[in-house]
Amino acid sequence: MPLSRDSQLAAEIKALVAGGERDAARDRYSDLVARQQRRAVRIAYQYLRDAHDADEAVQDAFVKVFTHITSYREDLPFEVWFTRILVNACLDLRKSRARRLRWAVPMSSATDTTPTDPPTRDQSPEQRLVSTERAKEIATAVESLPGRQRTVFTLCHVAEQTTAEVSQALGLSEATVRVHLFRAVRKLRRLLERE
Amino acid sequence: MTSRHLSDDRLIELCMLEAPSMAEQQHLGSCCQCDARRARLLALLDDVSDVAAAQADAAFPPERLARQQARILSHLQHDGRPARVITFPAAHAYEPIASRRRPGTRWIAAAAVAGLVIGLVAGRFGHDYSLGRPGPVRAIVARAAGAPEFRAAGSSGTIREASTDLSDEEFLSEIEIALDSPTAAALQPLDDLTPLPWEVR
Questions:
Q1: pLDDT digits (tens, 9 = 90+) for B49-87
Q2: By CB count within 10 A, which of A140, A183, A195, B5 is most buried?
Q3: ipTM of the complex
Q4: Which residue blocks in chain A are alpha helix, DSSP H?
Q5: CB contact, 8 Å: A156 with chain B?
Q6: A63/B56 touch (CB, cutoff 8 Å), yes or no
């Protein structure tokens, strides 16, 4: 099976680091970051539902990937390896957020939700879509999924990974991944489908 | 297989994971019901991914992504470099630790240790001593249990007499009864705030 462009890039960076050419490796790595960044923030944001946390998780994942690039196995698609690291970064952040919240006194009931800005004329198309009623319904429905189901659904659907790749990324069996995916979709359909 | 409708799970697989087999394609071509179900599910999934992408893209406009990338690369640039050694002004040059210590501090340390030892001995002695006699709390409980007004209340079950010879089993069941009382519910927020032993590392 031919390697993806990102996997080839990762293999090149690994070779450069192994050869002691760290500066050149960093230059090549900026290309890889640019190629994976959008996908990474979508996964992290969908998973964490908080822009600051998603930002932190993505940065953490990219730094870890470069730091451990010598342990990258070229027989695995880079996307799978990277996603695994990203999901772990999200999980770590979630744990630390839960610890923080346990000791924090809530200031208001709306602190955990994304602030809804009043519509302005210079809203981007994304902002306009997000502010529609249907989009809110969808976001609420996705948010209501149990953690595992949401992770699997996000990875399969938003990150467009196969169940085999998700099973590798999460360390679950493929059958378990499928069960979580089916449950997630059934629940979303129940909540969102209009007859 | 083709004459029967496609199951929900199979439809999900066809929409998200796999291409339909030849027989399934034929079935979808001839069964309006299954085809409509598939179309609805596909539309729903498209909506979900559009909204997910739009939400993330709204939260991460290109400028924010550029800043993020710059931070990642700057972090990597500093990573692996030896730490910079900051030289201290000449006035604070190295001096042997012993010479900097003032003689008075030794006395303070000795007094602290002595205080600790005395405290431990006194505590131990006081504890042993109190075991042989009824302590103030026990005396109060005993007096209260003996008082007529408490005896009357105790018979109605609102106040139970404190007993020192409870078995572990009885003691735990007393706790369970107390937890079931309505006043215990008021303490629930405090309990929620308190970390569980296995959460504290």
A1: 888 888 899 999 999 999 999 999 998 887 666 566 666
A2: A183
A3: 0.77
A4: 5-18, 22-48, 51-67, 78-103, 125-130, 133-143, 147-153, 163-170, 174-192
A5: yes
A6: no
